[in-house]
Amino acid sequence: MSRLWLLNCLVAAVIFLSLATLKGALVALAIPLFIYAVSCLFQGSPVVQLSAVRTLSARRVMAGEPVVVTLSITNQGAAIEELQIADVVPQSLEVLEGQTYALTTLLPGETIEMEYRVRARRGLFEFSDIRASVRDHLGLRETHVVLSATAQLLVLPEAPRLRSVAIRPRHTHGFAGSIPARQAGTGVDFLGVREYQPGDPQRWINWRVSARHAQTLFSNQFEQERITDVGLILDTRQHSNLHSNDKALFEYAVCATAAVAEACLKEGHRVGLLLYGYGMERTFPGYGRLQRQRLLNALARARTGMNYALESLGRLPTRFFPAQSQLVIVSPLSPEDVSTLMSLRAHGYEILVICPDVVSFELASRDASSHPQLAARLARIERTLWLRSLQRVGIRVVDWRVDQALDQAIHTALQKQPIGRAAWERAT
Amino acid sequence: MSLTHRMRSLAIVLATATLIVGYGLGNLWTWAVFLAAAAVIWWWALCVKWNGVPSVALTVYVLAATAGCWQGLQPILMVAGLVAALCAWDLDHFARRLRNVRTDAATCTLERRHLERLVTVSGLGTLLAVISLSVSFKVNFAMLLILILLAVLGLSRTFAWLRRVSE
Predict the structure, then answer these.
(1) What is the ipTM, given to two decimal places?
(2) Report field, pTM of the whole predicted structure over 0.80
(3) Residue A29 · residue B62 · CB < 8 Å
(4) Fewer Cβ in 10 A, N or C end of chain B?
(5) What is the rounded average pLDDT of the residues B37-49?
(6) Domain layout of chain B by residue ranges
(7) pLDDT value at A418 more than 70
């Protein structure tokens, strides 16, 4: 019930009681209420003309960095006796300092400034409208105004620093990089010996082999090191995300993807990204700082969702990635995904799976006493079994407990699953 | 505690005390105790921030003042109690609007202007009520009927207009 309506009812009730009881004194009681109710008539009807400008101290920030939001509201109409301003702050933005609500008077042409600091983890945040209410001093007449002051804030995901990620796909590019290309050329690692050709540096001559032949000289060959294509695939399917307390498993997956992207770009590789699950959002492969920004922008916008067409990895568009290139899949996976990954491997892709550990993430949010011990054990065994079946076909798997540093998890896991010559040496 | 909060507390005490004295002078102590209980409930509602209670409390105080006048108690005290209850109700609403606002110069100005307006309105209301209490005239039945019709018409038109304006 509005305040004015309550007053109206009380005035009417008192006056009718006075008439019904023929008590003149009762009319006197209605007078203060009536005067209060009609006091708002003495002010003219307010024509609200407000303009608002919103400025952000930065439009793109890293996760956790504070941003100062400044609102300037100018009165372009008549004087406003009481102005209440409430800014609508997007959900999951944390207000650190300052106020998003103000109550003030505003003279014609006067400007009020509000300032507050916000912080967020990751995502695209859209500031939309400012709600303003204009009232008379007694608050009886109220006019609501919505002021448009839009702005966007992009909070990029945190990318933990990684040492180089040991990858070795069959397909490489022509430019010098860090991946052994299985081709002779300028390099560091010994590849083989061939007959000396004019122009070969003298220090390349293999004297031991040459000594065994009377008339022929032999030179060492070195393995070329080149850059390669890295295709990052981030699983954005609804069921790949788990929430426990205020943490989400998907946020860890996003950070891991950002970290791998940064490490690969640093080594000069051409990196592309596919967000698969809620839809299919692709960032074309590229190099360098600009590509880093593109990838971080895409990861900042990433969110999980339900898409019945993309419930399994079976519809993964392999044409997005060059044949025999390196794929890095960041996903908690499910048993149904195993066959798809095996099929990708059979097509010649080198696959590295970074698999956040769902079971330990779930258990971390529960009390030790309330653990369903047997169920957790069974889930762990099942998970280990299908991760091993992936490893058996040559897919390298990083089983990542999210409370562990990603760099440490990757290096520990990849040391146990060597590639190339190291794998061959280990096998023989 | 801000000026608004102090004035609100003072208004509640004043409203309750005035009405209790009025009822006490008429030897209606049961009603006086009931009013004291209403004041305690109003106070408690302010502490726990129940927003609906002040409107109910104002209604109770207006009805108490009306019942007092009807019983033939001191009308001046009833008017004073009603005006104080009205001020308390208004200040409670204003305090709620101020709740989330950082106190600065602009807010102090706003608070001062609100109190000025409230004092003016309630002072004028009290003055007119006291004048109306000192004026008495007799009317016949036909005149009374016309007055009732005029009151119905006038009030309904005024309230309809106020509601339209407030929306």
Answers:
(1) 0.85
(2) no
(3) yes
(4) N
(5) 86
(6) 3-166
(7) no
| Res A162 pLDDT > 80 | yes
Closest Cβ opposite residue A28 in set B62, B106, B132? B132
> Tens of pLDDT along A113-124?
889 999 988 889
Contact yes or no for B163 and A81 at CB 8 A: no
Q: State whether the Cα torsion A398-A404-A407-A413 is positive or negative.
A: negative
Provide the pLDDT for residue B28: 86
Q: Tell me: the pLDDT tens digits for A193-225?
A: 889 888 888 888 889 999 998 888 999 888 777
Structure tokens at B7: 């004035």
Q: What is the pLDDT of residue A422?
A: 53
Question: pLDDT at residue A368 above 70?
Answer: no
Q: Which residue in chain A is spatially nearest to B112 when comparing CA positions?
A: A137
Measured between alpha carbons, how far is A16 from A288 in angstroms, rounded to an integer? 83
Which residue, among A337, A338, A339, has the nearest Cα to A310 in the 3D structure?
A: A337
Task: Kindly determine whether residue B122 and residue A32, on different chains, have CB atoms separated by under 8 Å.
Answer: yes
Residues 20-49 of A with CB under 8 A from B: 21-29, 31-41, 45
Give the closest-approach CA distance of A4 to chain B in angstroms.
Answer: 7
* Mean pLDDT computed over A307-313: 82
Q: Tell me the average pLDDT across B22-41.
A: 89
Domain map (residue ranges) of chain A = 3-43, 50-156, 176-226, 229-427
Tell me if B148 sits within 8 A of A12, measured CB to CB: no
Q: How far apart are the first and last CA of chain A?
A: 85
What average pLDDT does range A80-86 have in this prediction?
85
Give Cα separations from A161 to A62, A100, A257 (angstroms). Answer: 14, 36, 12
HEC assignment per residue over chain B: CCHHHHHHHHHHHHHHHHHHHHHHHCCCHHHHHHHHHHHHHHHHHHHHCCCCHHHHHHHHHHHHHHHHHHCCCCHHHHHHHHHHHHHHHHHHHHHHHHCCCCCCHHHHHHHHHHHHHHHHHHHHHHHHHHHHHHCCCCCCHHHHHHHHHHHHHHHHHHHHHHHHHHC
Kindly list the residues from chain B whose CB atom is less than 8 angstroms away from the CB atom of residue A112. Answer: 106
C-beta atoms of B125 and A103 within 8 A: no
Smallest CA–CA distance, residue B111 to chain A, in Å, is 9
**Within 13 Å of residue B138, how many CA atoms lie on the same side as its CB?**
1
> Among A374-383, B48-57, B67-76, which stretch is predicted with the lowest mean pLDDT?
B48-57
CA distance, residue B141 to nearest chain A CA (Å): 11
Q: How far apart are CA B106 and CA A13, in angstroms?
A: 39
Instruction: Indicate the SS3 state at residue A196.
Output: coil
Window from A147-156, A246-255, B101-110 with minimum mean pLDDT: B101-110
The reported pLDDT for the residue numbered A48 is 81
A17 contacts B162? CB cut-off 8 A: no
Cα(A204)–Cα(A200) distance, rounded to whole angstroms?
7
Which CATH number is associated with domain A229-427?
Answer: 3.40.50
CATH topology of domain A50-156: Immunoglobulin-like (2.60.40)
The mean of the pLDDT values for chain B is 85
Q: Which of A2, A26, A34 comes nearest B70 by C-beta? A: A26
Chain centroid to CA A299: 5
Instruction: Give chain A positions within 8 Å (CB) of B132.
Output: 24, 27-28, 31
